[in-house]
Amino acid sequence: MEKSIIKTEIPGPKSKIALQKQAQWESDAISYPKRLPIALDRACGSYVQDVDGNVFIDFLLGAGSLPLGHSHPELVDEVCKQAKKLSLGLDFPTPIKETFTEAHFSMLPEKLRDSYKLHFCGPTGADAVEAAIKLAKVSTGHQEIISFRGGYHGCTTGALAVTGNRQMKKDFLGLMPGVHFFPFGSESHSQTSWVMNSQQLDAGMFLESALRDANSGLGNIAAIILELVQGEGGLYVAEKSFVSKIYQLSREFNIPLIIDEIQTGCGRTGTWYAFEQYDIEPDIFVTSKGTSGIGLPSSLMFYKKTYKNWLSGNHIGTFRGNQLAFSAGVKAIQIIKQENVLDNVKMMSSIIIDKLNALKIKFPFLGEIRGKGLMLGVEILDPEREEADEKGAKEIQKLALQRGLITELGGRNDTVLRLLPPLNIDIKTINEAFQILEEVFICYNNMIHKEE
Q1: Rounded CA gap, 107 and 178, in Å?
Q2: Could you state, in order of their start, the residue ranges of all structural domains in the chain?
Q3: CA 6/CA 54 separation, integer angstroms
Q4: Phi/psi of residue 355, each to 5°?
Q5: DSSP character for 5?
Q6: Angstrom distance (rounded) from CA 376 to CA 84
Q7: How remote is the C-alpha of 72 from its chain's centroid?
Q8: Where are the beta strands (DSSP E) in 363-420?
Q9: Average pLDDT for residues 77-88, to the nearest whole number?
Q10: Fewer CB within 10 Å, N- or C-terminus of the chain?
Q11: What is the tens place of the pLDDT at every residue in 131-147?
């Protein structure tokens, strides 16, 4: 698979049957096939093929969990070899787990490598968030958590409680109490933005005021949890002065700072962890999506060695010893180092941003371009009202799929067209993807002018 090819209408006949069976058998909680109605068959690199033989460029990429693309042959070989030895090891030490641990510590900034311990969590990023919250609570003896508007941390009870999206949690009673939400300080200057930025009031000031005010309503704070790039929240990037203020306040008030690197970690923003770009040392940070390099589930929590209250059995899970994920993860890190993949992230990020800016000049419905590294997106606007346009974003996603490009939507009301390509993507594939995008934007532009 080296080029997108559309052979049938979307969805094709075989996909329609598969989607009907899925609707019959599976729960109504399925999400991606409702917006991207295809049934997948195979994939390689940046491309995925559906059961009807249609080939798409995949800029969803397992929700960002395939940093080297689909089915990287060297990673597949490692998984096959490991499967013949040992597939699940619970939390027993094993040779491949030891090598995986060493590999991940080697990716930390050198000055931090002796500062942290590692906890293997269950198979999802949300489980690592749960572990981080529990560790902060047991270490401080406090119960309340500070989170930020627009943040997304997962769908389990604790992770959902610290997630900003009200729609996601409106039907669930009894979520973890004691969560306080504050404005997120972003680089954004969009008029449609709901976050704070340097042209408005200082977002860090709100938290500082609350922490210093005996009548703010805050109780004893166990942790502050923060994403440095709000992926699901619309690709808002945290402003450096805001992060610096949050970090300074966490030191002054002795509050553990949890950085959620579930999606930003493992090179997605151009450094192995996004926090490296902010001159901070998180007390706890969690990562998951890219840890195995091939989409096999694994989630990790790193925490400062000064937290000594984490006792045997405090947080366990059957699948935390996924030896197949470890074997692939070791090879992925080797490839990322040998092939200078992080440099490629920065270079391709710059190219994509330039291409988006060029398209933005042509099409007035393209709004603010946001993100960092290869975690990018553009807001879709109603050009007359200059407001975020949910309907327009969905139509553009649909048109892109019909032409052979899989994208994701995010942000408030899903108005941001998100691009999550592989970290090792080449210029040829980017050019092909943007040829499709330009065709999509021309088509959409004609549609909205025809309606007028």
Answers
A1: 35
A2: 13-71+340-451, 74-338
A3: 5
A4: -65, -40
A5: B
A6: 39
A7: 20
A8: 366-372, 375-382, 387-388, 405-406, 408-410, 416-419
A9: 98
A10: C
A11: 999 999 999 999 999 99
